[in-house]
Amino acid sequence: MGYLETSNGKWEIVIGLEVHAQVISNSKLFSSASTQFGASPNENVSFVDAALPGILPVINSFCVDQAIKTGLGLNGTINLVSFFDRKNYFYADLPQGYQISQFKYPIISGGYIEIEKENGDAKKINIERIHIEQDAGKCIHDQNPTKSYIDLNRAGIALMEIVTKPDMRNADEASKFLRKLRSILRYLKTCDGNMDEASMRADLNISMHRPETELGTRAEIKNVNSIKFLMTAIDFEVRRQIEILESGGKIEQETRLFDSTTGETRPMRSKEDAHDYRYFPDPDLPPLVLEQSRVDAIRQTLPELPDAKTERLQRNYGLSHYDACLISSEIELADFYEKSLESSKCNDKDIAKTLSNWIIGELFAFLNKHNKNITQSNISPENLGELVVLIKTNVISGKIAKDIFEIMWETQKKPSDIIEEKGWKQITNSDEIKTVIIQLLDENPEKVAEYKNGKEKLFGFFVGQIMKKTAGKANPQLLNEILHKILDN
Ligand code: ADP
Ligand code: MG
Protein backbone atom coordinates (compact mmCIF):
# COMPACT_ATOMS: atom_id res chain seq x y z
CA MET A 1 0.00 0.00 0.00
CA GLY A 2 1.52 3.26 -1.14
CA TYR A 3 5.05 1.85 -1.31
CA LEU A 4 7.61 2.96 -3.79
CA GLU A 5 8.82 0.16 -6.02
CA THR A 6 12.16 -0.05 -7.80
CA SER A 7 13.80 -3.03 -9.53
CA ASN A 8 15.34 -3.74 -6.12
CA GLY A 9 12.08 -4.02 -4.20
CA LYS A 10 9.80 -1.85 -2.11
CA TRP A 11 10.62 1.26 -0.13
CA GLU A 12 8.55 3.30 2.29
CA ILE A 13 9.10 7.04 2.66
CA VAL A 14 8.93 8.42 6.21
CA ILE A 15 8.45 12.14 6.81
CA GLY A 16 8.24 14.31 9.92
CA LEU A 17 7.97 18.10 9.91
CA GLU A 18 9.16 20.81 12.28
CA VAL A 19 7.18 23.95 11.46
CA HIS A 20 8.13 27.39 12.75
CA ALA A 21 5.06 29.59 12.94
CA GLN A 22 5.38 33.25 13.86
CA VAL A 23 2.87 34.20 16.54
CA ILE A 24 0.47 37.01 15.64
CA SER A 25 1.19 39.62 18.31
CA ASN A 26 1.91 43.35 18.21
CA SER A 27 4.95 42.99 20.40
CA LYS A 28 7.78 40.50 20.83
CA LEU A 29 7.98 37.46 23.14
CA PHE A 30 10.05 39.08 25.90
CA SER A 31 10.06 42.77 24.97
CA SER A 32 7.62 45.50 24.04
CA ALA A 33 9.24 46.20 20.64
CA SER A 34 6.93 46.13 17.62
CA THR A 35 6.69 43.13 15.31
CA GLN A 36 5.63 45.16 12.25
CA PHE A 37 6.80 43.51 9.01
CA GLY A 38 8.66 45.72 6.55
CA ALA A 39 9.92 48.32 9.04
CA SER A 40 13.29 49.86 8.20
CA PRO A 41 16.29 47.91 9.54
CA ASN A 42 16.68 47.97 13.33
CA GLU A 43 13.61 50.17 13.81
CA ASN A 44 11.97 47.60 16.08
CA VAL A 45 14.74 46.80 18.52
CA SER A 46 14.54 47.22 22.28
CA PHE A 47 17.39 46.86 24.78
CA VAL A 48 16.15 43.32 25.43
CA ASP A 49 16.35 42.36 21.74
CA ALA A 50 19.81 43.90 21.43
CA ALA A 51 20.85 41.99 24.59
CA LEU A 52 22.33 44.95 26.43
CA PRO A 53 23.88 43.90 29.75
CA GLY A 54 21.59 44.00 32.75
CA ILE A 55 18.32 43.65 30.88
CA LEU A 56 15.71 41.11 31.90
CA PRO A 57 13.15 39.37 29.70
CA VAL A 58 9.48 39.61 30.68
CA ILE A 59 7.08 37.12 29.14
CA ASN A 60 4.39 38.56 26.85
CA SER A 61 1.23 36.93 28.14
CA PHE A 62 -0.65 37.51 24.90
CA CYS A 63 1.90 35.29 23.08
CA VAL A 64 1.30 32.62 25.71
CA ASP A 65 -2.47 32.89 25.14
CA GLN A 66 -1.85 32.49 21.41
CA ALA A 67 0.19 29.31 22.00
CA ILE A 68 -2.55 27.91 24.26
CA LYS A 69 -5.15 28.66 21.60
CA THR A 70 -3.01 26.94 18.98
CA GLY A 71 -2.55 23.89 21.21
CA LEU A 72 -6.29 23.61 21.78
CA GLY A 73 -7.03 24.07 18.07
CA LEU A 74 -4.61 21.25 17.24
CA ASN A 75 -6.10 18.89 19.85
CA GLY A 76 -3.03 19.03 22.10
CA THR A 77 -2.60 18.88 25.88
CA ILE A 78 -1.79 22.21 27.51
CA ASN A 79 0.90 21.68 30.15
CA LEU A 80 0.09 23.84 33.16
CA VAL A 81 3.78 24.03 34.03
CA SER A 82 6.46 24.46 31.37
CA PHE A 83 9.98 25.87 31.34
CA PHE A 84 12.16 28.18 29.28
CA ASP A 85 15.64 27.01 28.39
CA ARG A 86 18.64 28.66 26.82
CA LYS A 87 19.79 27.13 23.56
CA ASN A 88 23.37 28.33 23.27
CA TYR A 89 25.08 29.10 20.01
CA PHE A 90 27.09 31.91 18.53
CA TYR A 91 25.91 33.78 15.51
CA ALA A 92 26.19 37.41 14.50
CA ASP A 93 22.42 37.87 14.33
CA LEU A 94 21.97 36.46 17.86
CA PRO A 95 23.37 39.09 20.22
CA GLN A 96 22.37 37.17 23.37
CA GLY A 97 24.56 34.23 22.38
CA TYR A 98 21.58 31.99 23.08
CA GLN A 99 17.98 31.61 22.01
CA ILE A 100 15.30 31.36 24.69
CA SER A 101 13.32 28.26 23.81
CA GLN A 102 11.62 25.33 25.55
CA PHE A 103 13.36 21.98 25.59
CA LYS A 104 12.32 19.21 27.98
CA TYR A 105 9.06 20.73 29.14
CA PRO A 106 7.18 22.42 26.29
CA ILE A 107 3.90 24.29 26.77
CA ILE A 108 2.00 21.77 24.61
CA SER A 109 2.31 18.01 24.23
CA GLY A 110 0.56 15.81 21.70
CA GLY A 111 -2.23 16.75 19.31
CA TYR A 112 -3.08 15.88 15.73
CA ILE A 113 -4.43 17.13 12.43
CA GLU A 114 -6.64 15.08 10.17
CA ILE A 115 -5.86 15.05 6.45
CA GLU A 116 -7.54 13.32 3.54
CA LYS A 117 -5.40 10.79 1.71
CA GLU A 118 -5.36 10.48 -2.08
CA ASN A 119 -7.91 7.64 -1.87
CA GLY A 120 -10.26 9.81 0.21
CA ASP A 121 -9.61 8.08 3.57
CA ALA A 122 -8.99 10.25 6.61
CA LYS A 123 -5.58 10.03 8.25
CA LYS A 124 -4.38 11.49 11.54
CA ILE A 125 -0.96 13.13 11.54
CA ASN A 126 0.17 13.23 15.15
CA ILE A 127 1.91 16.19 16.71
CA GLU A 128 4.70 15.49 19.17
CA ARG A 129 4.92 18.88 20.84
CA ILE A 130 4.60 22.61 20.40
CA HIS A 131 6.97 24.96 22.16
CA ILE A 132 7.48 28.72 22.13
CA GLU A 133 10.80 30.39 21.41
CA GLN A 134 12.45 33.57 20.16
CA ASP A 135 13.31 34.19 16.53
CA ALA A 136 16.83 35.36 15.61
CA GLY A 137 17.80 38.50 13.67
CA LYS A 138 18.96 38.59 10.08
CA CYS A 139 22.35 39.07 8.43
CA ILE A 140 22.37 41.04 5.19
CA HIS A 141 25.29 40.14 2.93
CA ASP A 142 24.29 41.66 -0.38
CA GLN A 143 24.37 45.42 0.22
CA ASN A 144 28.07 46.03 0.47
CA PRO A 145 31.01 44.19 -1.16
CA THR A 146 33.11 44.13 1.99
CA LYS A 147 30.65 44.40 4.85
CA SER A 148 27.73 42.44 6.26
CA TYR A 149 24.90 44.18 8.02
CA ILE A 150 22.69 42.98 10.83
CA ASP A 151 18.99 43.71 11.17
CA LEU A 152 17.56 42.83 14.57
CA ASN A 153 13.92 43.64 13.79
CA ARG A 154 13.07 39.95 13.83
CA ALA A 155 15.17 39.18 16.91
CA GLY A 156 12.93 38.21 19.79
CA ILE A 157 9.70 37.78 17.82
CA ALA A 158 7.65 34.88 19.21
CA LEU A 159 7.66 31.62 17.28
CA MET A 160 5.79 28.41 17.88
CA GLU A 161 7.66 25.30 16.82
CA ILE A 162 5.22 22.57 15.87
CA VAL A 163 6.91 19.17 15.70
CA THR A 164 5.08 16.23 14.13
CA LYS A 165 5.66 12.52 14.65
CA PRO A 166 7.19 10.76 11.62
CA ASP A 167 3.69 9.97 10.37
CA MET A 168 3.66 11.15 6.76
CA ARG A 169 4.37 8.67 3.95
CA ASN A 170 4.66 10.77 0.79
CA ALA A 171 4.83 14.31 -0.58
CA ASP A 172 1.05 14.51 -0.95
CA GLU A 173 0.48 13.82 2.76
CA ALA A 174 3.21 16.26 3.79
CA SER A 175 1.82 19.05 1.63
CA LYS A 176 -1.73 18.39 2.84
CA PHE A 177 -0.53 18.51 6.44
CA LEU A 178 1.19 21.83 5.88
CA ARG A 179 -1.86 23.28 4.07
CA LYS A 180 -4.23 22.14 6.78
CA LEU A 181 -1.96 23.42 9.54
CA ARG A 182 -1.74 26.79 7.82
CA SER A 183 -5.49 26.92 7.39
CA ILE A 184 -6.15 26.12 11.08
CA LEU A 185 -3.60 28.67 12.33
CA ARG A 186 -5.24 31.30 10.14
CA TYR A 187 -8.69 30.42 11.45
CA LEU A 188 -7.31 30.69 14.99
CA LYS A 189 -5.60 33.98 14.10
CA THR A 190 -2.46 32.82 15.90
CA CYS A 191 -0.19 32.87 12.79
CA ASP A 192 -0.82 34.54 9.44
CA GLY A 193 0.72 31.58 7.59
CA ASN A 194 2.45 33.89 5.17
CA MET A 195 5.26 31.74 3.79
CA ASP A 196 6.54 34.52 1.49
CA GLU A 197 7.28 36.70 4.50
CA ALA A 198 8.71 33.69 6.37
CA SER A 199 5.98 33.80 9.04
CA MET A 200 5.70 30.08 8.47
CA ARG A 201 8.60 27.84 7.49
CA ALA A 202 9.21 24.15 7.68
CA ASP A 203 12.15 21.84 8.29
CA LEU A 204 11.69 18.52 6.55
CA ASN A 205 12.88 15.24 8.14
CA ILE A 206 12.92 12.38 5.71
CA SER A 207 14.15 8.78 5.66
CA MET A 208 13.59 5.60 3.65
CA HIS A 209 13.19 2.05 4.86
CA ARG A 210 11.96 -1.33 3.72
CA PRO A 211 8.30 -1.85 4.70
CA GLU A 212 7.76 -3.56 8.07
CA THR A 213 11.32 -2.85 9.20
CA GLU A 214 12.80 -0.29 11.59
CA LEU A 215 12.84 3.34 10.51
CA GLY A 216 15.89 4.42 8.53
CA THR A 217 18.32 7.24 9.28
CA ARG A 218 16.88 10.62 8.42
CA ALA A 219 18.20 13.74 6.81
CA GLU A 220 16.87 17.09 7.98
CA ILE A 221 16.29 19.67 5.25
CA LYS A 222 16.25 23.31 6.33
CA ASN A 223 14.97 26.29 4.43
CA VAL A 224 11.79 24.89 2.90
CA ASN A 225 9.52 27.90 2.67
CA SER A 226 6.72 26.98 0.31
CA ILE A 227 4.51 23.97 -0.27
CA LYS A 228 5.86 23.62 -3.79
CA PHE A 229 9.44 23.57 -2.48
CA LEU A 230 8.43 20.98 0.10
CA MET A 231 7.24 18.64 -2.66
CA THR A 232 10.38 19.28 -4.76
CA ALA A 233 12.68 18.70 -1.79
CA ILE A 234 10.92 15.41 -0.95
CA ASP A 235 11.21 14.17 -4.54
CA PHE A 236 14.88 15.02 -4.64
CA GLU A 237 15.68 13.42 -1.27
CA VAL A 238 13.76 10.23 -2.09
CA ARG A 239 15.83 9.76 -5.24
CA ARG A 240 19.09 10.66 -3.51
CA GLN A 241 18.54 8.35 -0.55
CA ILE A 242 17.32 5.38 -2.62
CA GLU A 243 20.35 5.70 -4.87
CA ILE A 244 22.69 5.58 -1.88
CA LEU A 245 20.86 2.75 -0.16
CA GLU A 246 20.54 0.58 -3.25
CA SER A 247 24.22 0.90 -4.05
CA GLY A 248 25.01 -0.43 -0.59
CA GLY A 249 25.71 2.91 1.07
CA LYS A 250 24.43 4.39 4.31
CA ILE A 251 22.47 7.60 4.91
CA GLU A 252 24.33 10.05 7.10
CA GLN A 253 22.29 11.75 9.75
CA GLU A 254 22.90 15.30 8.65
CA THR A 255 21.36 18.67 8.12
CA ARG A 256 20.95 19.70 4.50
CA LEU A 257 19.92 22.93 2.81
CA PHE A 258 17.29 23.17 0.11
CA ASP A 259 18.27 25.29 -2.88
CA SER A 260 15.08 26.56 -4.47
CA THR A 261 16.79 27.55 -7.73
CA THR A 262 18.09 24.03 -8.50
CA GLY A 263 15.44 22.04 -6.57
CA GLU A 264 18.29 20.15 -4.91
CA THR A 265 19.41 19.65 -1.32
CA ARG A 266 23.07 19.85 -0.27
CA PRO A 267 24.92 19.12 2.95
CA MET A 268 25.05 21.90 5.56
CA ARG A 269 26.45 20.09 8.59
CA SER A 270 26.77 16.48 9.67
CA LYS A 271 25.82 15.04 13.05
CA GLU A 272 29.53 14.97 14.00
CA ASP A 273 29.80 18.72 13.93
CA ALA A 274 26.24 19.19 15.07
CA HIS A 275 25.93 21.92 17.61
CA ASP A 276 25.86 20.96 21.22
CA TYR A 277 23.45 23.60 22.36
CA ARG A 278 24.03 23.00 26.08
CA TYR A 279 20.44 23.66 26.93
CA PHE A 280 19.82 24.73 30.51
CA PRO A 281 16.88 26.40 32.28
CA ASP A 282 16.95 30.17 31.77
CA PRO A 283 17.74 31.67 35.19
CA ASP A 284 16.10 34.97 34.22
CA LEU A 285 12.67 33.41 33.80
CA PRO A 286 10.41 31.66 36.29
CA PRO A 287 8.57 28.48 35.25
CA LEU A 288 5.60 29.25 33.04
CA VAL A 289 2.65 28.35 35.27
CA LEU A 290 -0.88 28.47 33.87
CA GLU A 291 -4.21 28.40 35.68
CA GLN A 292 -6.66 25.82 34.34
CA SER A 293 -9.27 28.62 34.29
CA ARG A 294 -7.13 30.56 31.81
CA VAL A 295 -7.00 27.55 29.49
CA ASP A 296 -10.75 27.01 29.85
CA ALA A 297 -11.48 30.65 29.06
CA ILE A 298 -9.37 30.45 25.89
CA ARG A 299 -11.15 27.24 24.89
CA GLN A 300 -14.39 29.25 24.94
CA THR A 301 -12.99 31.62 22.32
CA LEU A 302 -12.07 28.93 19.77
CA PRO A 303 -13.76 29.58 16.43
CA GLU A 304 -15.37 26.90 14.30
CA LEU A 305 -12.40 25.21 12.57
CA PRO A 306 -12.13 24.09 8.92
CA ASP A 307 -13.22 20.44 9.40
CA ALA A 308 -16.28 21.43 11.43
CA LYS A 309 -17.16 24.11 8.91
CA THR A 310 -16.83 21.69 5.99
CA GLU A 311 -19.20 19.30 7.70
CA ARG A 312 -21.72 22.02 8.51
CA LEU A 313 -21.71 23.39 4.96
CA GLN A 314 -22.42 19.87 3.66
CA ARG A 315 -25.09 19.15 6.25
CA ASN A 316 -26.93 22.48 6.30
CA TYR A 317 -26.57 23.60 2.72
CA GLY A 318 -26.11 20.35 0.82
CA LEU A 319 -22.77 21.37 -0.68
CA SER A 320 -20.69 18.54 -2.11
CA HIS A 321 -17.75 17.43 0.03
CA TYR A 322 -15.34 18.83 -2.53
CA ASP A 323 -17.00 22.27 -2.65
CA ALA A 324 -17.42 22.45 1.13
CA CYS A 325 -13.70 21.63 1.63
CA LEU A 326 -12.72 24.24 -0.91
CA ILE A 327 -14.88 26.99 0.64
CA SER A 328 -13.68 26.11 4.17
CA SER A 329 -10.01 25.91 3.27
CA GLU A 330 -9.40 29.64 3.65
CA ILE A 331 -11.03 31.60 6.44
CA GLU A 332 -11.53 34.69 4.25
CA LEU A 333 -13.24 32.61 1.59
CA ALA A 334 -15.51 30.95 4.13
CA ASP A 335 -16.33 34.39 5.57
CA PHE A 336 -17.12 35.73 2.11
CA TYR A 337 -19.43 32.79 1.42
CA GLU A 338 -21.27 33.07 4.71
CA LYS A 339 -21.62 36.84 4.44
CA SER A 340 -23.11 36.44 0.95
CA LEU A 341 -25.48 33.83 2.21
CA GLU A 342 -26.52 35.95 5.16
CA SER A 343 -27.22 38.94 2.94
CA SER A 344 -29.43 36.78 0.72
CA LYS A 345 -31.55 36.42 3.89
CA CYS A 346 -32.55 32.97 2.97
CA ASN A 347 -31.65 29.52 4.19
CA ASP A 348 -32.59 27.87 0.97
CA LYS A 349 -30.26 24.97 0.02
CA ASP A 350 -30.74 25.79 -3.61
CA ILE A 351 -29.47 29.34 -3.10
CA ALA A 352 -26.57 28.10 -0.98
CA LYS A 353 -25.45 25.71 -3.71
CA THR A 354 -25.88 28.22 -6.52
CA LEU A 355 -23.88 30.72 -4.50
CA SER A 356 -21.00 28.30 -4.00
CA ASN A 357 -21.06 27.52 -7.74
CA TRP A 358 -20.80 31.21 -8.58
CA ILE A 359 -17.91 31.68 -6.17
CA ILE A 360 -15.98 28.59 -7.29
CA GLY A 361 -16.74 29.22 -10.96
CA GLU A 362 -17.17 32.82 -12.01
CA LEU A 363 -15.63 34.67 -9.06
CA PHE A 364 -12.51 32.45 -8.92
CA ALA A 365 -12.03 32.95 -12.67
CA PHE A 366 -12.19 36.74 -12.30
CA LEU A 367 -9.92 36.78 -9.24
CA ASN A 368 -7.44 34.59 -11.09
CA LYS A 369 -7.51 36.70 -14.19
CA HIS A 370 -6.86 39.86 -12.19
CA ASN A 371 -4.35 38.19 -9.90
CA LYS A 372 -6.34 39.00 -6.76
CA ASN A 373 -7.32 37.06 -3.68
CA ILE A 374 -10.79 36.89 -2.17
CA THR A 375 -10.23 39.83 0.19
CA GLN A 376 -9.46 41.99 -2.86
CA SER A 377 -12.57 40.96 -4.77
CA ASN A 378 -14.19 43.80 -6.70
CA ILE A 379 -17.55 42.21 -5.99
CA SER A 380 -18.80 42.40 -2.42
CA PRO A 381 -20.37 39.36 -0.74
CA GLU A 382 -23.62 41.33 -0.43
CA ASN A 383 -23.81 42.05 -4.16
CA LEU A 384 -23.07 38.45 -5.10
CA GLY A 385 -25.72 37.26 -2.64
CA GLU A 386 -28.25 39.60 -4.25
CA LEU A 387 -27.34 38.41 -7.74
CA VAL A 388 -27.94 34.78 -6.83
CA VAL A 389 -31.33 35.60 -5.29
CA LEU A 390 -32.28 37.47 -8.48
CA ILE A 391 -31.42 34.38 -10.54
CA LYS A 392 -33.23 32.01 -8.24
CA THR A 393 -36.39 34.14 -8.13
CA ASN A 394 -36.40 34.33 -11.93
CA VAL A 395 -35.93 38.07 -12.10
CA ILE A 396 -32.99 37.48 -14.44
CA SER A 397 -31.74 34.51 -16.45
CA GLY A 398 -28.41 32.81 -15.75
CA LYS A 399 -27.07 34.17 -19.02
CA ILE A 400 -27.88 37.78 -18.21
CA ALA A 401 -26.51 37.19 -14.73
CA LYS A 402 -23.07 36.64 -16.29
CA ASP A 403 -23.24 40.02 -18.01
CA ILE A 404 -24.34 41.65 -14.76
CA PHE A 405 -21.50 39.90 -12.94
CA GLU A 406 -19.01 41.45 -15.32
CA ILE A 407 -20.48 44.94 -14.84
CA MET A 408 -20.52 44.44 -11.07
CA TRP A 409 -16.82 43.59 -11.21
CA GLU A 410 -16.09 46.73 -13.19
CA THR A 411 -18.37 49.21 -11.45
CA GLN A 412 -19.08 47.74 -8.00
CA LYS A 413 -22.74 48.59 -8.57
CA LYS A 414 -25.59 46.63 -7.03
CA PRO A 415 -27.10 44.06 -9.41
CA SER A 416 -30.60 45.53 -9.01
CA ASP A 417 -29.29 48.95 -10.07
CA ILE A 418 -27.59 47.45 -13.12
CA ILE A 419 -30.79 45.62 -14.13
CA GLU A 420 -32.76 48.83 -13.74
CA GLU A 421 -30.29 50.85 -15.78
CA LYS A 422 -30.03 48.30 -18.58
CA GLY A 423 -33.68 47.28 -18.60
CA TRP A 424 -32.61 43.65 -18.19
CA LYS A 425 -35.46 42.50 -16.03
CA GLN A 426 -36.77 39.14 -17.13
CA ILE A 427 -40.21 39.08 -18.76
CA THR A 428 -42.36 37.05 -16.44
CA ASN A 429 -45.68 38.37 -17.68
CA SER A 430 -47.42 35.51 -19.59
CA ASP A 431 -49.43 37.82 -21.82
CA GLU A 432 -46.36 39.68 -22.90
CA ILE A 433 -44.57 36.43 -23.80
CA LYS A 434 -47.67 35.12 -25.54
CA THR A 435 -47.83 38.20 -27.76
CA VAL A 436 -44.25 37.70 -28.89
CA ILE A 437 -44.85 33.99 -29.55
CA ILE A 438 -47.95 34.59 -31.64
CA GLN A 439 -46.16 37.25 -33.64
CA LEU A 440 -43.29 34.86 -34.37
CA LEU A 441 -45.53 31.97 -35.35
CA ASP A 442 -47.48 34.27 -37.69
CA GLU A 443 -44.24 35.19 -39.39
CA ASN A 444 -43.26 31.54 -39.90
CA PRO A 445 -46.33 29.57 -41.08
CA GLU A 446 -44.24 26.94 -42.99
CA LYS A 447 -42.09 26.17 -39.94
CA VAL A 448 -45.22 25.79 -37.82
CA ALA A 449 -46.64 23.35 -40.36
CA GLU A 450 -43.39 21.34 -40.41
CA TYR A 451 -43.44 21.19 -36.63
CA LYS A 452 -46.99 19.99 -36.61
CA ASN A 453 -46.02 17.30 -39.15
CA GLY A 454 -43.57 15.86 -36.66
CA LYS A 455 -40.37 17.91 -37.01
CA GLU A 456 -40.17 18.46 -33.25
CA LYS A 457 -36.61 19.74 -33.41
CA LEU A 458 -38.06 23.06 -34.54
CA PHE A 459 -39.20 23.74 -30.98
CA GLY A 460 -35.67 24.85 -30.19
CA PHE A 461 -35.67 27.13 -33.20
CA PHE A 462 -38.83 28.90 -31.95
CA VAL A 463 -37.36 29.30 -28.47
CA GLY A 464 -34.18 30.78 -29.92
CA GLN A 465 -36.08 33.25 -32.08
CA ILE A 466 -38.25 34.43 -29.20
CA MET A 467 -35.18 34.90 -27.01
CA LYS A 468 -33.72 36.96 -29.83
CA LYS A 469 -36.85 39.10 -30.08
CA THR A 470 -36.89 39.68 -26.30
CA ALA A 471 -33.12 40.27 -26.05
CA GLY A 472 -32.79 37.16 -23.90
CA LYS A 473 -35.25 38.45 -21.33
CA ALA A 474 -38.14 36.00 -21.68
CA ASN A 475 -38.37 33.73 -18.66
CA PRO A 476 -37.30 30.35 -20.12
CA GLN A 477 -39.74 28.21 -18.14
CA LEU A 478 -42.74 30.39 -18.94
CA LEU A 479 -41.70 30.60 -22.57
CA ASN A 480 -41.48 26.80 -22.77
CA GLU A 481 -44.84 26.29 -21.17
CA ILE A 482 -46.71 28.81 -23.28
CA LEU A 483 -45.04 27.77 -26.52
CA HIS A 484 -45.97 24.13 -25.90
CA LYS A 485 -49.52 25.11 -25.09
CA ILE A 486 -49.93 27.07 -28.31
CA LEU A 487 -48.10 24.67 -30.67
CA ASP A 488 -49.41 21.41 -29.28
CA ASN A 489 -53.10 22.37 -29.48
P1 ADP B 1 15.68 15.82 17.32
O1 ADP B 1 15.37 16.05 18.76
O2 ADP B 1 17.03 15.26 17.07
O3 ADP B 1 15.39 17.01 16.46
P2 ADP B 1 13.19 14.44 17.09
O4 ADP B 1 13.00 13.03 17.56
O5 ADP B 1 12.62 15.53 17.91
O6 ADP B 1 14.72 14.64 16.83
O7 ADP B 1 12.58 14.52 15.65
C1 ADP B 1 12.60 15.66 14.91
C2 ADP B 1 11.73 15.45 13.71
O8 ADP B 1 12.20 14.36 12.93
C3 ADP B 1 10.29 15.12 14.03
O9 ADP B 1 9.45 15.84 13.16
C4 ADP B 1 10.18 13.64 13.75
O10 ADP B 1 8.89 13.28 13.32
C5 ADP B 1 11.17 13.44 12.64
N1 ADP B 1 11.75 12.09 12.59
C6 ADP B 1 12.25 11.38 13.59
N2 ADP B 1 12.72 10.20 13.14
C7 ADP B 1 12.52 10.17 11.81
C8 ADP B 1 12.80 9.22 10.76
N3 ADP B 1 13.40 8.08 11.01
N4 ADP B 1 12.44 9.56 9.52
C9 ADP B 1 11.86 10.72 9.23
N5 ADP B 1 11.58 11.64 10.16
C10 ADP B 1 11.90 11.38 11.44
MG1 MG C 1 14.61 18.98 16.23
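^ adenosine-5'-diphosphate complex. The domain at 430-487 is CATH 1.10.10.410 (Arc Repressor Mutant, subunit A). Residues 18 surround magnesium ion (ligand 2) (CB under 6 Å).
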